[in-house]
Task: inverse folding
């Protein structure tokens, strides 16, 4: 465990040592065994049936879930006292990554083990857990989560479903319609949110056979066709009073805390999907011949493969760095205290901005990956007989799941600035220093003996740039900055690139001594390729943000700072890309895991 655990958002102002971060190279033998078990299950039991599953043969999905239960894959986050394994977040994220190879099946799995199970784990009474958890973690029952409504998506508290206590006080009567419910077609237990007396937002545990619960027709979706997505209609649905989950009027805590968990797990899942799609693209590029050459030998294709390899390296580094932060924080909580899960969820909420970053960055890396894989396949990528077409359709939902990427982009700087206003992060003092640096020329020479020195200087400068932009925005708009969504989204893009790049650099620095000379060269190449991309993306966001906030001399000064603080010497960039592409095509795999 690190001597000092970073607070959420503190990466923007702190110098972080590589020894303090968790990386995929740090997986224990037990974690590797879970990963291998999961991958073998998916490749042997799910992948051969994916076509049937995509035809909505949900019997195969339910059967697969029961097999997951037999393997212990449904109980990783469940307390030992209820038959679970209660494993660390790195392990559960690693399983989420490997299960993603199963396409639509992974959606059912993720919904079940995440939003389907965790509300009960975190907020259920001992009686509720005793009654339901055993069935859920064994796969006997599948679970679903009902928050979204036809008129309320991101605005969860705008829900219209109601709950009224019966005259005898024995049950609640629920009415309303829930929309886009994953696992709706076959789930046996639902966490359903409704407003008691049209006012108090509350969660309920509702069994499929309770009178008044009606399952709607399957939605006709663009992608993830093998997952069940239905409406859940509540028509005077009778729910026993003892099935209230948590406290009356405190349903928002359940809804939002569970979404934080969903976001970091989604980051792991889409990283796994990116790896699979990339390898499929590489293999096809090695098979496809044009002009008497494999298309993998063409620079135009090789550059795509190199860029994707570097982006996935950053995605993977980010996901498991976050896993390490969460595990370190949660390890400080005494499991024997009465309010353990209250403190546990506070520990996860500490890194809510990083959870949002994981969701946004990794889902957009997957979007980039599947788009380029379709391009590599050419016309065949547009034909459903080939896997690229399914990757492309299935990917799209990930930028909507668990809060849209736009909502998450607003939350990332919003939560960081809220911490600063509470005095939990000294951003104001650091922002003042950043402003001073605008007026102070720098003649610092790089010490080439420091590993990844150019990238570390870039990171330091990008952090300064974030502070300048965020500080200028707060100074101009004060507490109304929350209404300036375009500015917040620009700031978010800088914060996202900083966390991703720093995660990649720290992982590379930590792992370098363990690698062969050849792999060291590949890691250095991946960092260089991604650093160039991150500097360009952050620079574009900063310029946009500057124009949004300022004008005149102040704008001119900030734009000069943007040019200065996004400067990155990417000498050797083409050679780095060619090295990555040639190695990936030769080995026909993702090079770093």
Result:
């Amino acid at each position: 465990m690190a001597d000092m655990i970073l607070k959420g958002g503190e990466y923007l102002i702190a110098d972080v040592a590589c020894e303090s971060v968790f990386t995929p190279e740090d997986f224990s033998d037990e974690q590797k065994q879970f990963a291998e078990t999961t991958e073998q299950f998916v490749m042997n039991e799910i992948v051969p049936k994916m076509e049937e599953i995509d035809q909505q043969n949900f019997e195969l999905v339910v059967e697969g879930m029961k097999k997951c239960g037999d393997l212990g894959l449904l109980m990783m986050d469940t307390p030992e006292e209820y038959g679970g394994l209660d494993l660390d977040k790195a392990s559960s994220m690693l399983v989420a990554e490997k299960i993603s190879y199963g396409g639509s099946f992974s959606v059912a799995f993720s919904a079940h083990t995440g939003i389907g199970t965790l509300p009960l784990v975190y907020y259920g009474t001992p009686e509720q857990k005793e009654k339901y958890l055993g069935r859920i973690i064994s796969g006997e029952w599948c679970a679903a989560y009902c928050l979204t409504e036809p008129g309320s998506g991101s605005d969860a508290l705008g829900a219209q479903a109601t709950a009224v206590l019966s005259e005898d006080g024995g049950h609640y009567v629920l009415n309303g319609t829930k929309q886009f419910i994953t696992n709706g077609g076959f789930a046996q237990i639902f966490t359903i949110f409704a407003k008691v007396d049209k006012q108090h937002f509350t969660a309920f545990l509702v069994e499929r056979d309770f009178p008044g619960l009606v399952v709607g027709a399957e939605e006709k979706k663009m992608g993830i066709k093998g997952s069940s997505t239905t409406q859940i209609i509540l028509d005077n649905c009778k729910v026993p009073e003892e099935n209230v989950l948590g406290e009356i009027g405190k349903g928002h805590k359940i809804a939002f805390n569970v979404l934080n968990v969903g976001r970091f797990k989604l980051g792991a899942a889409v990283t796994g999907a990116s790896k699979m799609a990339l390898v499929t693209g590489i293999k096809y590029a090695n098979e496809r011949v044009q002009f008497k050459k494999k298309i993998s030998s063409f620079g135009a294709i090789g550059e795509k493969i190199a860029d994707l390899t570097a982006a996935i390296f950053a995605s993977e580094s980010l996901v498991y760095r976050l896993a390490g932060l969460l595990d370190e924080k949660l390890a400080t909580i005494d499991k024997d205290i009465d309010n353990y899960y209250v403190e546990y969820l506070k520990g996860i909420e500490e890194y809510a901005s990083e959870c949002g970053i994981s969701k946004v960055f990794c889902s957009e890396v997957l979007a980039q990956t599947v788009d380029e894989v379709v391009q590599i396949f050419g016309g065949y990528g547009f034909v459903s007989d080939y896997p690229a077409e399914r990757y492309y359709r299935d990917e799209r939902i990930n930028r909507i799941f668990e809060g849209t990427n736009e909502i998450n982009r607003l939350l990332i700087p919003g939560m960081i600035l809220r911490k600063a206003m509470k005095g939990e992060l000294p951003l104001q003092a650091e922002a003042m220093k950043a402003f001073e640096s605008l007026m102070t020329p720098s003649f610092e020479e790089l010490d080439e003996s420091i590993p990844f020195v150019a990238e570390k200087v870039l990171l330091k400068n990008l952090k300064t740039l974030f502070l300048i932009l965020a500080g200028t925005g707060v100074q101009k708009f004060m507490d109304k900055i929350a209404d300036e969504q375009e500015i917040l989204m620009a700031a978010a893009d800088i914060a996202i690139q900083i966390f991703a790049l720093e995660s990649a650099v720290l992982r590379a620095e930590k792992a370098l001594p363990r690698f062969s000379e050849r792999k060291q060269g590949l890691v250095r190449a991946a960092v260089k390729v991604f650093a160039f991309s991150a500097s360009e993306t952050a620079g574009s966001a900063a310029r946009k943000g500057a124009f949004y906030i300022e004008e005149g001399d102040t704008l001119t000064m900030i734009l000069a700072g943007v040019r200065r603080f996004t400067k990155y010497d990417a000498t050797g960039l083409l050679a780095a890309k060619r090295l990555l592409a040639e190695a990936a095509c030769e080995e026909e795999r993702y090079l770093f895991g």
